[in-house]
Amino acid sequence: MYSTLVELSLSLVERSAASATVAAAAQPAVQVIAAPAAVPVVAPAAEEMLHRQHLPQVAALWRADRLSALPGPVTRSGFAALDAELPGGGWPHRALTELLLPHPGLGELRLLVPALVHIAGGSSADGCRSVMLFDPPAALCGPALVQLGVDAQQLLVVHGREGPRATAALRRLLSSADLLWALEQALKSGHVGAVLAWLPQRLKADALRRLQLAAQAHDGPAFLFREVDARARPSAAPLRLLLQGAGIDRLSVRMLKRRGPPLAQPLVLALPPVLGERLRLRGEPPAGVTTAGQRAASSIAG
């Protein structure tokens, strides 16, 4: 009897030890988690430096609070005040530049004359290159262009049947669709130094996108002249300027869109004169008198 009790006690002790071992194995292991380290406070200057180090150097990447420095080539406008406000310091290549104006004849061509002289005058690195003009609203004045230094032999003019100079006798010329196609092909060719195009009104957005894609293969500036009402519609052009008359041989330039912060006040540029000194003084209004053109420009800006 005694031996039986001893064996029973030993059996109970072994079972208790085995149960304790199984329970300990069933419990999950306790993980010791270290306390989080204190988050360092980064100064604004150091944070900006970190952003510059980690952000990729992409040509299309720019900060909206500062003027973009385009890595690609540009053509100087010939106006120091304007170059200081243009991304890259001049008229961009491989991109569209929209010039919005209330009516032709404000001096828009004289604004581009320094760039055209550089491109078509042989002073550029590539020598003398041609300039194509699509559907200009009036006939070009050869003597005035020569006086300003533009080689008229390098200008190639393409007229359309539905442009400002269209008449019933010009049905053989290109339609608007064909003119846009010719403009797109000229941009894609890569053989034109500069392009100036007066586009039809209310041009569709997809047509502008096609022109912008084509301009990426054009190693030179591409200028599109459009109506003032186009400022309320979106555009694929990365640079948009509003041109307004500001007096005799003066032009107001307002930045509507650029890769950088908005410009609070428009620029007033002195254009290359084409009138003689006597005619220019005769056309100047008396001091304190506002001309009709200046009043119209103020209403457009407002």
Descriptive labels:
302 residues, Rossmann fold, eight-stranded mixed beta sheet, two-stranded antiparallel ribbon, 9 helices, 10 strands, disordered C terminus
What this model shows, in words?
The chain is of the alpha/beta class and 302 residues long. The chain has a single domain (63-301), classed as P-loop containing nucleotide triphosphate hydrolases (Rossmann fold). It is 34% helix and 15% strand. The chain is built from 9 helices and 10 strands. An 8-stranded mixed sheet has the order 5-4-6-7-3-8-9-10, sandwiched between helices. A two-stranded antiparallel ribbon has the order 1-2. Helix 6 runs parallel beside helix 7 (205-215). The chain starts with a helix and ends with a helix. The model is unreliable at 296-302 (pLDDT under 50).
Order of strands across the biggest sheet?
A: 5-4-6-7-3-8-9-10
> N- to C-terminal separation?
116 Å
- The CATH C-level name is Alpha Beta
Report the average pLDDT across residues: 76
